Amino acid sequence: MYAQLAHRHASRANELAQAANVQSSASTRLAEQANQLAEEANVYARRGEARDIERDDVRWEGDWVEPGRYGLVQQGEATAHDVVAVVSVDGSEVSIRSPRVVNGETLIFEFPAAAAAYSAERASWDEAVAEAARPRGTAWPPLSAFVAQPDPLRMGFHDHRISERVDWATAQGAHKVHESEQKFASLGPH
């Protein structure tokens, strides 16, 4: 009778030991998965820290290259990645995408309507200058000296709006933005 009771207790102990081994294996797998997730979290944290302290020397400078062609030059030492640049001239918008833009590289935006408007403004200016210089009789000093000289501001030549927006990523993946707006701009090179 004691032998049977001992055998039953031993069998029950073996069953409990097997159950404990199964749970131990499951626990070990869960611990391994938790370690893997912790390693991934550390990688993300290191990347975030690298982005936070990353020095990003990217600057953008825009101006007319020639009438109707606006250029945005990347002036910094770093490379801009995944670039999306948008320039708007008097409400007309042109965008350019580039996988990377290096120091000194220029993005060119075409604005045919601005070129036509610049030509018309230029012709109007030339006409106004010629009219101001026209002789006005034989009086001394010449009356043309008292005729008002043309003023490009009054003639509306600097009454245009140009805006720039450039979105890009740094080498570490940090998002950066450049925005600029000129409210009294001309439509051609200075």
CATH architecture of the largest domain: Sandwich
How much strand? Answer: 25-35%
Which class of the largest domain in CATH terms? Answer: Mainly Beta
Radius of gyration: 37 Å
Helix percent band:
25-40%
Outline the low-pLDDT stretches.
none
Total individual domains: 2
The CA-CA distance between the termini, in Å, is: 112 Å
Stated plainly, the CATH topology of the largest domain is called Immunoglobulin-like
| Form type | rod-shaped
Which structural category fits the helices and strands? alpha+beta
- By DSSP, the count of extended strands is 7
Strand arrangement across the biggest beta sheet:
4-3-6-7
How confident overall, as mean pLDDT? 81
Largest sheet, in brief, is: 4 strands, antiparallel
Number of contiguous helices: 2
List the secondary-structure elements in sequence, H or E: HEEEEEHEE
Brief overview:
With 190 residues, this protein is an alpha+beta fold. The protein is built from two helices and seven strands.
